Amino acid sequence: MAAKIPEVTQISESDLVRLTQEARQEATPTFGKIIWREFKNNRLALTSLVLVITFILFVIIAALFINTPKMMTTNIMDYYSKPFNKNFILGADSGGRSIAKQLIVGSRNSICIAIGLTVISSTWGICWGMISGYFGGKVDLVMQRVYDFMMILPMLMTIIVIVTIIPTYNSVTLTLILSVFYWMGTSRLIRSRVLAESQKDYVAASKTSGTSNWKIIFREIMPNISSLIIVDTTLSFAENIGVETGLSYLGFGLPLGTPSLGTLIANANDPENITTYWWTWLPAALEIIILCLAISYIGQAFRHATNASQQ
Amino acid sequence: MSLLEVRNLKVHYPIRGGFWNRIVDVVKAVDGINFSIEQGQTYGLVGESGSGKSTTGKTIVGLERPTSGQIFYQGQEVQQNKLRNSVDYQRNVQMIFQDSLSSLNPQKRILDIIAEPLRNFQNLTADQEKLRVLQLLDIVGLSADSLYKYPRQFSGGQRQRIGIARAVATNPKLIIADEPVSALDLSVQAQILNFMKKIQRELNISYLFISHDLGVVRHMCQQIAIMHRGRLVEVGTRDDIYNHPQHIYTKRLLAAIPETNVNSRQEHRQKRLEVERIYNEQQAKYYDSNGAAFALQPVSMTHFVALAPTD
Amino acid sequence: MWKTILRRLLIMIPEIIILSVLVFILAKAMPGDPFTGSINPKADASQIHHLMRVNGLYDPWYQQYWNWIVHLFHGDLGTSYEYQEPVTTLIAQRGMNTFWLALFTMILTYVIGLPLGIYAGSHEGKLPDTLVRVYTYITMSIPFFVVLVVGVWIFGYTLNWFPTSGSIASNANGLGSTILSRLQHIILPGLLGALFGTVNIVQYLRSEVIDAKSSDYVKTARSKGVSTKNIYQHHIFRNSLLPIAAFAGYSITGLLGGSIFTEMVFSYPGMGLLFLNAINYRDYTVITSLVLLYGFLNLLGTLLSDIILSIVDPRIRVE
User: Which ranges does the record mark as transmembrane (chain C) (predicted)?
Assistant: First the structure.
């Protein structure tokens, strides 16, 4: 059967290398190149990107050199030590603990949880949305009912109740618990796009080419919504930083003795802290604000780049 | 033995309604049609939009599920619900789509698009595969530097050639061409049609040519079936249909072909109005009380028309 | 139309049942029992056992669940052992505070969001549009609780413009000063909630206006000499009014979730603060009642929005 085609064409094996090379020269820019171009032209986005990456690397590496239990021991002598002195750059809290060190370890913890949460919940949400949108029919109906139910759950309250029920937990279990509740936004977004994509003829063409459903979902449709996925994941990362820190702020996030940006901001719950000892909480609050704005801006730049590339 | 035989094929879609979402009615998109396609032949399936001709094509390649009926491929029945799982059938029955842009995955390079069926049905090394794609590109008249380009970089006619290259990649016996040229400019239409004929001669392919354009069908098909409201109303050779139309619907379609001779414009218009008048008057003679066409009756050896039973 | 609403209500039933089962499981999973704290601390184990038996706590779980549901339907949510009051009374008091704050926030959200969205859309690409987009970018990026903390620090403690805790001043007497004092307490949290809750409305209206501007029906109206103001009032705004109204239902979820943070930061005695206290005191009856109530309110909110949207767009009626 295979012999039939060479009869009607003159291309033989000897031409293969030459023609491939020619074709390669004519090839079009890839997605990565388009994004790189966007960041090169948008200084603010590039600055944000460099800032966020450097900062994350810095806190992860610096936290390795900090002895957390020792840092968290109370030292009455340094009670509310003022910032900018030689021992405490950012001062100390009511227990005489260094704010700067807590900030580094806390940032590490909060950022790692946010990354873990983003990875798990986005993966889950993307898969949920793609399966629901692609298969449609009864599968979609059941999956949508689950989605509807998750939407009416009072999330924050349920998480707090679960956290109080579970006797022992750490940052990993906390991340998993949070992931159960934060995939719906992504899944909804992805579902509606996949629903539209599945109607296109290239999906039908893949079916007639003998490609299996799973391959069609992940290899044919997914590349077409990859820009949406990148933008959504970046934006959810910014959002997820607020999830754990918010919970820790309320006192139901990371267990006691594990610093987080949220527990640092919780220092502001004391009316005296919030005004007189502002250094105990303000740096953490400012850090979250800057971090979230920067990550969000990177997301906007991604969106801009992908919109431009689709035109 | 015919290459493909369709027996009493029905595709019905339920309409759900009422409070409990029960099936209240069905749309009979395809309502019991029979036809067979011979090796190397082009079989035309003609009808207005909504007549069920596209559904018929999609059901044959397995994109839609038949409600009932049988499909025989080389004398062997293809299981309805396993249409897509029968490798041999899948490889030998391929499809060309109307919308060339939508039928090519915008995120894939031409190499990957054309190689998709090869990867699913044949075990080729990367080099063999590339060579094969280059040969296919040569057959459809595209240069080798298309290899790493994306679909949006091609014109409509070129994209349709890529779609054809993909369809013939696995040396199929039958290609379902669903309005392959309707979206193209007239000048490009002729190119693509001639070129489809050329491949047919060289590779001995059969086409099921689905179209609403009787002019194009006349150019392409030896056997023609006219479809209306899910049923075949007239089946015959090109000569039967164009020179001796029997059914009022066929006559009406033929009268609607635009006349290029300006001098006989008035005369042509008169004829069209006359056909239209007869069509409206004689509805009852050609359609039963539900508006469905009658069963086909032989008029000659090759010519069948849906007429009221004569008893 | 009525069919849609009725069917939507039917879908609610399993959701309510699952929600109640979930809350019941959570309540059962909580450590401790509801009596150890509520009776005489010297009560010995046998007395507690007796109470447990009498109150059916040794019954099989489905029996207990059924009893709980029956009590729920009689409006009996149990007694808070921290406050020694029926939970219904407790929630009624705190609920009013949360309700006023939420209502105020929602009204402000629309007051701020509607003009901003239309203004940005009608000045697409110009300076006002850019400013509004910077505003929405900032508000949707920063976590809300940080906004609240910084807000209370600046406007409450530092500038002293607004009270920083409670729902009413202790010295407020008479109708006028009571209302004034209440208002004073909800202005800052309400304003912050509104300023940072307009993103959806602004973005929706903006894109709606931009789409409408280039749509054929507006172009036709304009070419026939209809004034710009008229076009905005009669075509663009009227078309997007109902979808915008539908946001109100969905935003209930956000407002309720946010109320926990707002009431924590402002020590505002509403249901959110009640919940946090209940968690700290392990006041289980209050916790379960509040989770159930919040879930139910979310359900009503989405129901409301779905109904409004199905009036606007028949295509999205539940199949």
Answer: 9-27, 99-122, 134-155, 186-205, 241-266, 286-312
Global ipTM? 0.86
Residue A133 domain-assigned (yes or no): yes
B289 plus B257 within the same structural domain: yes
Q: How far apart (Å, rounded) are the C-alpha atoms in residues B138 and A16?
A: 12
pTM of the model: 0.86
What's the DSSP call for residue A257? T
Q: Which residues contact C131 (CB under 8 A, 6 or more apart)?
A: none
Query: How many angstroms away from the CA of C90 is the closest CA of chain A?
Result: 18
Structure confidence by residue, pLDDT tens digits, C73-123: 887 777 777 777 888 888 888 888 899 899 999 999 999 998 898 889 888
Cα–Cα distance between A144 and A162 in angstroms, integer? 24
- Choose the closest CB to C146 out of A250, A271, A289: A289
Task: Evaluate whether residue A4 is within a structural domain.
Answer: no
- Contact yes or no for C285/C77 (Cβ under 8 A): yes
Q: Considering only CB atoms, which chain A residues are within 8 Å of B122?
A: 2
Out of B180, B202, B229, pick the residue that ends a domain.
Answer: B229
Q: For the segment C149-171, what is each residue's pLDDT rounded down to a tens digit? A: 999 898 888 888 888 777 777 77
Q: Which residues contact B190 (CB under 8 A, 6 or more apart)?
A: none
CB atoms within 10 A of CB C107: 12
> What DSSP letter does each residue of C12-57 carry, written as one string?
HHHHHHHHHHHHHHHHHHSSS-SSTTTS-TT--HHHHHHHHHHTTT
Distance from the Cα of B221 to chain A's closest Cα (Å) equals 23
Cβ–Cβ contact C319 with B under 8 A: yes
Q: Is 1.10.3720.10 the CATH classification of the domain at C95-256?
A: yes
